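Appendix B. One record, verbatim.
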Amino acid sequence: MKEIKKYLQNRKLAIEFILEKPRSKFSANTFHKLRVEIKKLNALIDLLNACSENFNRKKTFKPFKKIFRQAGVVRELQLEETLLKKLNLISLLSEYMISLRKHRLTEQRFFFSMIDLKLNDRLKNKYKEIEPLLSSVNKLNTENYLNDKTNSIKKIINRSDLKAEQIHELRKLLKPVNYIRKCLYADKLNYPGSHNNKLSGLLGKWHDLQVMVRHLDNAVVKGKINKVEIDLLSNINAKLASDRDNIFEKIKMAIPRSEFFTDRKLPFVY
């Protein structure tokens, strides 16, 4: 399938372009873009795993997973800094903000230490390993793959007692399905799922708040800053947890039930 070959080539070029950037050019958005591109590559690897009997999914994705995870650590700390700045609380959280910045810079240095010639060679070898396997992908097994994923999604959305774990799993399942769909419908403006962005936006906001609540919980429990700042962080965290729970309820309202759940109603999730 020529679309699949082009998809791999685009991911390869995008990831290489980002990793070759000077450190000074890495912004919060750069880390985000890198993670999105690796997620897109992982969607292809997931498809190949379903189409090729001798494909070692875990081994192939391993070097990408390492930089994906570390970029995620940096990204979460960046989000926390951004959020607290938006709340105009920097002056009241000076001790915590200094600690947070030091932590983020430490994690960034570790991320950049991972990007060396050895890693680049490993990634190039993985692309070469993937390329011959693309011939195993055809219309039939791609449709079977998408149907299997869609059925898994249906099982989640039809639960009457959705919990945070299921919402997180739903978000993870929607990504590969919609990345592959967008790949197959790249030459069409109205590919399946291209118009349903409401659920996508809600899932993204919920996930970010989930991350922030976890981070601030850890900060409060560790108590390595003065009590005034700890109390303030506790209050902020309570508000964020409330916002997260409100979005959780909106997600449950926005999720389509199975009787309306057709291919064209799957939301696209970035």
